């Protein structure tokens, strides 16, 4: 019987806006040669939104904290997890365009529209927002 071991790669990011472009580049480097351009672009966009949220809204931005970007290749999809320091003031939620602040609140709306699935959880160690994108192998 042949088993499948999920390849997993990670990148540790500091909490500065420049790290969002670094996260996007990391996605391209990890996935471009093996997956379609459309799949890579969707993952790149969702990564950009979730990493931005972690940098802006989590406790990781305090005291030089970090954000961990994990990319896990599953049999028929890519799972990306963005792990941060959590937040005592907000939880990940979808904001419909035009309902709150014109410049903010659309990140998870886009993730919800583009990804096959997404979710989040918070515990005493921090927060995790994840999403999955189906691939054509």
The CATH architecture can be given as: 2-Layer Sandwich
Average pLDDT for all residues: 84
Number of domains: 1
N→C terminal distance:
20 Å
Amount of beta strand: 25-35%
General shape: globular
Pfam family, one: HATPase_c_2
Organism: Actinomadura decatromicini
GO molecular function: ATP binding; protein serine/threonine kinase activity
Protein name: ATP-binding protein
Commentary on this structure:
The protein is an alpha+beta fold. It has a single domain, classed as Heat Shock Protein 90. Helix content is 31%, strand content 28%. It has helices at 18-31, 37-57, 107-114; strands at 8-14, 66-73, 77-84, 117-123, 126-134. A five-stranded antiparallel beta sheet has the order 1-2-3-5-4, with helices on one face. The model has no long low-confidence stretch (mean pLDDT 84). GO terms for molecular function: ATP binding; protein serine/threonine kinase activity. Pfam families: HATPase_c_2 (PF13581). Residues 16-128 form the Histidine kinase/HSP90-like ATPase domain.
């Amino acid at each position: 019987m042949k088993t499948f071991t999920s390849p997993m790669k990670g990148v540790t990011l500091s909490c500065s806006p420049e790290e969002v472009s670094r996260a996007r580049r990391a996605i391209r480097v990890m996935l471009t040669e093996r997956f379609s351009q459309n799949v890579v672009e969707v993952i790149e966009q969702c990564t950009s939104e979730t990493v931005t949220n972690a940098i802006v809204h989590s406790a990781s931005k305090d005291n030089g904290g970090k954000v961990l970007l994990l990319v896990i290749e599953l049999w028929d999809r890519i799972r990306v997890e963005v792990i941060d320091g959590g937040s005592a003031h907000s939880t990940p939620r979808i904001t419909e365009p035009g309902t709150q602040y014109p410049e903010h609140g659309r990140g998870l709306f886009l993730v919800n529209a583009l990804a096959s699935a997404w979710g989040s959880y918070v515990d005493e160690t921090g927060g995790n927002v994840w999403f999955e994108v189906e691939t054509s192998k």
